[in-house]
Design a protein that fits this description.
It is built from six helices and nine strands, in the order βαβαβαβαβααββββ. α2 crosses α3 (about 70-80). The protein starts with 5 loop residues before the first strand and ends with a strand. With about 220 residues, it is an alpha/beta fold.
């Protein structure tokens, strides 16, 4: 598989620690990448030149991560026809919400596939999913990845169930596996007798007697 399939563009070198999971994910999937530092505001011409020539450089997907007024992904998307994945980063006074809005709120015709705040791993997975349309081997790796996720959830559920059973077991008693809850029995329905059309009246099951409208008991007829 050729290298340099994914371009990872950071707005600042300080963003690198937050994007390590993205790079780890690409490595695990066998995807080559290159990391570039480009600022949409401080080096706009560099951003335009890079995006315009990205396809000729052999890239298939661009991942752009920035915080604050995060226009990096949008600027790059405006200069290329390649799919762009935007990663809004936290660190500002607004906790990354400003970066999220700046990345996701693109005008019609210039989309950016935006993941969650600091969701570097999801950005890597999304890039792999895009590349899997071109490389059959990546589909198999993604399938294995999904299976590992499901197995991890099952293991956590089993471990938690065992911990809860151990906490509730009496001291000195062997731990028994939790039994499934028994279904609740349906409640007995009360009988109704109509004294007048459209007026349901409750009949007592104990005495078997009706009550008059004024509250006085009425003898039962045999």
């Amino acid at each position: 598989m050729p290298s340099g399939l994914v371009a990872v563009v950071l707005g600042s070198d300080s963003d690198f620690p937050k994007m390590k999971e993205c790079l780890t994910t690409l490595t695990e999937m066998g995807i080559g990448y290159r990391v570039n530092i480009i600022s949409a505001h401080r080096s706009p011409q560099r951003a335009a030149d890079f995006a315009a020539g990205a396809a000729e450089e052999g890239y298939d997907v661009i991942i752009a991560a920035a915080g604050g007024a995060a226009h990096l992904a949008g600027v790059i998307a405006s200069w290329t026809t390649l799919p762009v994945v935007g990663v809004p980063l936290s660190g500002s006074a607004m906790g990354g919400v400003d970066a999220l809005y700046s990345t996701v709120q693109m005008p019609p015709g210039v989309p950016v596939a935006t993941v969650g705040i600091d969701a570097a791993r999801n950005a890597g997975i999304l890039a792999v999913q895009v590349l899997s349309l071109k490389y059959q081997s990546l589909r198999e790796r993604l399938g294995n990845y999904k299976r590992r996720l499901a197995e991890g959830v099952a293991e956590k559920s089993t471990r938690l169930e065992g911990e809860l059973v151990a906490q509730t077991a009496p001291p000195g008693q062997p731990v028994q596996p939790a039994q499934p809850a028994q279904p609740a029995q349906p409640a007995q329905q009360a009988a109704f007798v109509k004294d007048e059309p459209g007026q349901p009246r409750r009949r007592s099951r104990r005495s078997g007697r009706r009550r008059k409208p004024n509250g006085q008991p009425q003898p039962s007829m045999v």
